[in-house]
Amino acid sequence: MSTARSLGLWTDGVNSLPTGANNAITDVPGVTVGHRTLQGDGLATGVTAVVPHQGDLFRSKVRGAVEVINGFGKSGGLVQIAELGTIETPILLTNTFGVAACTEALIRRAIEQNPKIGRQTSTVNAVVCECNDGQISDIQAMAVTVDDAFAALDAAAPGVVEQGAVGAGTGMTAFGFKAGIGTSSRHFSMGKQEFTLGSLVLANFGRAGDLTLPDGRRPSPNDVSAPEQGSIIVIVATDLPLGDRQLQRVARRAGAGIARLGAFWGNGSGDIVVSFTTADQVVHEGPDFQTVQMLDNDHIDLAFRAAAEATQEAILNALAAAPATTGRSGKVFPSLADWAKEQQR
Fold it and tell me: Which domain holds residue 126?
């Protein structure tokens, strides 16, 4: 699997933060990622699961936030995250028409763990985000099922994350190139404590010809006439104790990482960031007053930098790992890795 670093597309600057062990969102302790890939018979789609921790998420919620950069999207569960500042299910990524199946899967899985949901206690807020993979996959086939979502959840694991044309990223494109799932992480110290922030992206955005690499090069695919009509979903995870308002501020900085690569978030682009911290979890039906542990705002700049850097590199990794692919109309979406290797000759 090619990465931005292995292809020479990413070089750490003087002030760059170090990566975690796997340079992935799974470097945040407890976070796991799983994929379910669907290919064949006109299909190139799937589901990707991001699981914040290995306990009962409904009973032990993570603090979370959402930042809608441009809202041309059909995701589920974002309104309650914005209102309450917590996340109580895994986060599923899929194609636009797979949102309903993934939502049902999250609800059913939560009820299995907590049979009182919707009866003796509150309902559950399933979090699903999407991008449109219709240029490559037959989205009208409604191929993603509840079982596919279960498979992605069951495949969630720590360690190295498969990237590129896999899971929800199987049919996605970016800047005119084939793209998909990408991830990266940053490690930093505050006082005597060590923390990690990771970003995972579903990259399906960017006008062809606008991609700008960190060294200033601008690789162009053959066709640069298409408008900006894509989307990107960014999941930012950290173990740094942050309040939900601070998490939204961190999520907003993921937009800096997107913009550094040349995107301007066009009218038809759905650009959404969901962030969470595994620290200071919120107990369901807890005491009347709960203590909140959070970073002093005067020290939050490191988290801002980490979010921007990790998101930028995650997008490049999504591009670097994806092979050239022919779309449903016969249009070829080239591989950025092939372009990079040609430049090295």
Answer: 25-284+293-327
Amino acid type, 83: E
Measure the CA–CA gap between 99 and 97, rounded to whole angstroms.
6
Classify residue 20: in a domain, yes or no: no
Q: How confident is the model at residue 12 (pLDDT cuts 50, 70, 90)?
A: confident
Say how many domains are in the chain: 1
Is 16 inside any structural domain? no
Whether residue 12 is contained in a domain is answered as no
- Record the pTM: 0.97
Q: What SS3 string covers the chain?
A: CCCCCCCCCCCCCCCCCCCCCCCCHHHCCCCEEEEEEEEECCEEEEEEEEECCCCCCCCEEEEEEEEEEEECCCCECHHHHHHHCEECCCEEEEEHHHHHHHHHHHHHHHHHHCCCECCCECCCCCEEEEECCCCCCCHHHCCCCHHHHHHHHHHCECCCCCCECCHHHCCCEECCEECCEEEEEEEEEECCEEEEEEEEEEEECCCCCCCCCCCCCCCCCCCCCCCCCCEEEEEEEECCCCCHHHHHHHHHHHHHHHHHCCCCCCCCCEEEEEEEEEEEEEECCCCCCCCCCCCCHHHCHHHHHHHHHHHHHHHHHHHHCCCCEECCCCCEECCHHHHHHHHHC
Active site residue ranges: 231, 269, 271
Contact 261, 308 (CB under 8 A): no
Q: Which tens digits make up the pLDDT trace of 92-151? A: 999 999 999 999 999 999 999 999 999 999 999 999 999 999 999 999 999 999 999 999
> Can you give the pLDDT at residue 268?
84
Amino acid at 232: I
If you search the block for the tokens 């060294």, which residue do you land on?
Answer: 215
Name the burial class of residue 222, with classes exposed (0-12), middle (13-18) and buried (19+) by CB atoms within 10 angstroms of its CB. exposed
- Mean pLDDT across the stretch 213-234? 83
Domain CATH number, residue 65: 3.60.70.12
Structural domain includes residue 244: yes
**Rounded distance between C-alpha atoms, residue 263 and residue 174, angstroms:** 10
- The answer to whether 246 and 23 have CB atoms below 8 angstroms apart is no
